[in-house]
Every structure is written in structure tokens, then in C-alpha cells.
Amino acid sequence: MDESTVHEIDFKTREPRNAAKIKNIVLEEDFYAITWVALREEIWKEKFIHDTQIFLTPADYFWIYINFITFICTLLVTFGLILWEVLEDRGYTASNFAIVILRITLVSFAQKALAPEFYQGLFLMRYSVRFPEQFTHYQFALFVGICQFTVSCVVFTAIILFVCMEDEALTLVVEFAGLTVIAKLDNWIGEVIMYSKIHQEVHDEYQFKLKDFNLRIPLNQKLALIEEEDLTMIDDQNFLLNAHWTISTIEFLKEILPWQYILPFITVIFNYILPLLRPASENEE
Known about the structure:
globular, mainly alpha
């Protein structure tokens, strides 16, 4: 087994472990995971193109930071503007039973769609805190995990607000689909990066210009060298050693509360609270 896949397990711990909590994690090929994995120093030790070692330069790290921060800011500003439009002054009335059921269904679908983003962000945070020595810049690796975790929560909250503030079935479905598409933007960016892979098949008649090749190759083509084995990790959730108390608290709440059953029914509460807070009659007057 590759050494990089066993860092989550502390074999010195003698207390019996729950085998169900030792999981094989395969990170998605999204922008978050690619950025995070690129910060792991050991993966670049075996990256070669035509016998030329590929590694990240200081300029590459600079553009990784700039690209990621730009992506996050753009995403949050987009959702902020959308929410600003939705939360403008308007009145609300309690919806009928069919709309309430549709809201519960859409929020349930959103929860299923965003669950991988939520759990992956939580894993990236936990791993970065527990093994900072594996990263060239572990603070930024932690920041990446925090961003994915936070964005998944913000998007889910936005979807709840959207579906609770509309009482037309078609509008509900359209707005839900639009927010879900925006939430998956990181997956599209990851696919674009992976399309940049360099053809490495060797032909005797070919000659390559390899002088300063690592300096000339674009950042996206370096990131495209990240393979599935680099995205495969072992996650031992038995003992959260060195994990920050906030991460441990989130893990504890995740285990004891049935969130998958509770959250969709928040829409029912909003159905009766919103008309009380801002009745339609007041808006009309």
C-alpha cells in the first residue's frame, strides 16, 4: 500500500477501533480537491513528463492562491446578489399542501446533492489540522477545506430560503435547478483542468524541447497530473487526534442528530413563520 494512504491511522493506539469508522475516501475531481491535493508536498515527488520532474514553483503557488480566492469570492458574491434579490420587500402567505410537499422534496434533493461537498470539506479540514507537516502551506490547505464546507452550508441555506419564498411550482423548480448548477461549478472547473493532460506517449522519432520544461508548462497542465491515487485517502474517524474542538463538535453533532430527516421539514416551519413576520397584506398596503 502506498505510504500516502495510511497517514490517517495511528497504529500505536491500543484502544479497540470501530471498523465502520475507518473509511476509504476518494475525493472528487473538483476545484477544491485539486487545489488541496496540489498543496501536498509528497505527490510531486513522482510526477514526470518525458523523464523531466514536474513540481510547483513559487509562481505556481501564487496563482493557485489567486485562482482559488477569485473563485470563492465570485461564488459568494453571486449567491449574495441572488439572496439580496430574493429578500427584497415582499409579503408572504401560507402555501397550500402541494407546494409544501414540493418544498420538502426539493430540499431533500438538495441535501443529497450537496452532501458530498459537505463531507469532503469536513474531511479536508480535519486532515489539514491533523497532518500539517504534509503540506507546503497547510494554512491554505485548511482554508480550502473551510471554504468548501462553508460554501456547501451557504448554498444549502440559500436553497431553503429560495424554495420557502416562492409559492409557484414552476418557479420553485427553476430556482432550485439554477442554484444547484451554480453549486456544482467547482466540478466543472475540475473537469476543465483535467482536460489539460499532456500526451506522454513516447515515439522514437520524436524529439522534445525539455530545457526549463517545468518553468514553461502552464499551471493547469501540472494540476492535470494529479491522478485518482492522489485523491484516495484513508480516513480514520475513531480518534480525532489533534483536531480542533470545532471540528470535533461538528463530527459529534453529525453522528447524534438525524440531519437527513430534520432539515427538509424546516420548510414547513418557514411556511408559517414568514407570513407572520411579513404578511402579504402589509406589503400591499
